[in-house]
Design brief:
heterodimer; A: about 200 residues; alpha+beta; five-stranded antiparallel sheet; two-stranded antiparallel sheet; 5 helices; 7 strands; about 35% helix; about 20% strand; globular; B: about 130 residues; mainly alpha
């Protein structure tokens, strides 16, 4: 970091400040700095230990435990992990929303996966050295996407590839699902300024 | 939305029945989501947009299967109903900034007179409205 020219250091300071929530800790800011450095300097390749540090942070980030999302689409009526069923208008934690959608209702994961198992499987994918790592601006906001072949995580209605999105300004995962449109789905125009920091095995 | 044909469905057709149902349920959410959009947190907006992107990837797959002849007659009807509904909610999608699906030529089948007026070539396999 000390070898950065002053102008570049100032530019990165600005980018990190714009893409990081207030009150974020040192580890989060350091991870975002590396992500944004690689994202905005095409010749800046992260060293293996730098990428590993970024991914350790992303794996720990998880879904936002303090947020709530409305249960949309096909979730109404789904059995909740702690009993009862989802009702119209329910607002639930993001981890439960995405578990219900992608595991319980859409059976993208093995049907015996629990909520904790779903989250653990995402962490395992992030830690897997065969996973690809893509940085891009999704609808204008910087995100890091980890993508891997679904393999043992492919359920009855699963797909060949799965991904998890980490959104820098929230410091948490946005979603984790199996790609209906395969890897080309990540090439859509809504993901701008794409750069693969590591290409996934099997791509 | 279950396929209503008498014969045994292939695995792909079973998958398509589920996909049509999943996607139609999310499309039905667009008006309410657009109404609440100004009050949603960034994380919930991003979550919706990411899920939407995946469902639209599914629409592209369904359209591909239509052209490959892999949809049952009932699934074709459900797909056309879904695409018309997507056209109807298009202005709401524009307003909240999530992408409209790429219809991959299906707009010609959905509205042949309009397409003809625009000078587009007519297609022999156009589905009746």
């Amino acid at each position: 970091m000390s070898r950065e020219p002053d102008a570049r250091r100032a530019e990165l300071d600005r980018l990190v400040a714009a893409a990081t929530r207030p009150g974020a800790g040192r580890a989060e800011r350091d991870a975002h700095r590396l992500i944004l450095d690689a994202a905005t300097a095409p010749r800046r390749d992260l060293a293996p230990e730098e990428l590993a540090g970024v991914l350790r942070h992303v794996a720990r980030a998880g879904f936002d435990p303090h947020a709530l999302e409305r249960a949309r689409g096909n979730l109404v009526g789904a059995p909740r992990p702690d009993g009862g069923r989802v009702r119209t208008g329910d607002r639930l934690p993001p981890a439960e929303i995405h578990y219900l959608r992608h595991v319980v209702v859409q059976e993208e994961w093995p049907t015996d996966a629990t909520l904790a198992g779903y989250v653990a499987s995402i962490q395992a994918v992030i830690a897997d050295p065969e996973s690809g790592v893509l940085v891009s601006r999704f609808q204008g906001v910087w995100q890091l996407t980890v993508v891997r072949e679904s393999r043992e995580l492919r359920g009855p209605r699963g797909r060949d590839w799965l991904m998890v999105d980490y959104r820098l300004p929230t410091g948490h995962w946005t979603t984790a699902y199996q790609l209906r449109g395969g890897l080309p789905q990540l090439e859509q125009s809504e993901r701008e300024d794409r750069r693969w920091l590591r290409v996934p095995a099997g791509a | 939305m279950a396929a209503r044909t008498g014969g045994r469905l292939s695995d792909r057709q079973i998958r398509n029945t589920h996909d049509l149902s999943d996607i139609a349920a999310m499309v039905a959410e667009v008006p309410e989501t657009a109404a609440e959009w100004p009050d949603l947190a960034d994380g919930e907006r991003a979550s919706f947009a990411a899920e939407w992107s995946n469902y639209m990837g599914g629409v592209a797959q369904l359209i591909g299967d239509y052209y490959e002849g892999d949809l049952t007659p009932d699934q074709k009807g459900d797909l056309f109903a879904l695409l018309r509904r997507l056209q109807e909610v298009g202005p709401l999608l524009d307003r909240i900034g999530v992408r409209r699906p790429d219809l991959l030529g299906m707009d010609l089948l959905l509205d042949p007179p309009s397409a003809a007026r625009q000078g587009a070539a007519s297609r022999p396999d156009a589905e009746p409205r």
